Amino acid sequence: MQKQLFTALLYGWIVVFSLILLSSIILALLFRFTAFDENSLSWIALTIGFITLFIGGFIAGAKGKMKGWIIGGLIGLGFTLFTFLVQYLGYQHGFSMEQTLTHLGYMVAAVIGSVIGVNIFGAHNK
């Protein structure tokens, strides 16, 4: 069971970080080569973040097949911890209140995705 949980978390984190990296590259290119301004791209980035964490939670929940709340919470917490460490260690800034609320929303999105993934692909559906 522990190995299944770890495998599910690993899959979820790989999906989340891969999609975030890909979307960051696309958004950077849009910002550079189009007339989008920073305000409009920030809303797009926020939406992409919610969708990405939902997808990562969904895949982790589908792989874990149980304990969707825990798996989704750990997916969101891992992403938030990574973001905080990069920001704090790299730029010497902690989270603002706005960022804290945003990351709480990211965690909720991952939990919802994971619960849905468990309920669709869980062990009771075999």
From TrEMBL:
Pfam families for the chain: DUF3792
Keywords noted in UniProt: Membrane, Transmembrane, Transmembrane helix
InterPro entries assigned: DUF3792_TM (IPR023804)
Transmembrane segments: 9-31, 43-62, 69-91, 103-122
Coiled coil residues, start to end: none
Entry keyword annotation includes NADP: no
Domain of life, per lineage: Bacteria
Keyword Membrane annotated: yes
Protein name, as recorded: TIGR04086 family membrane protein
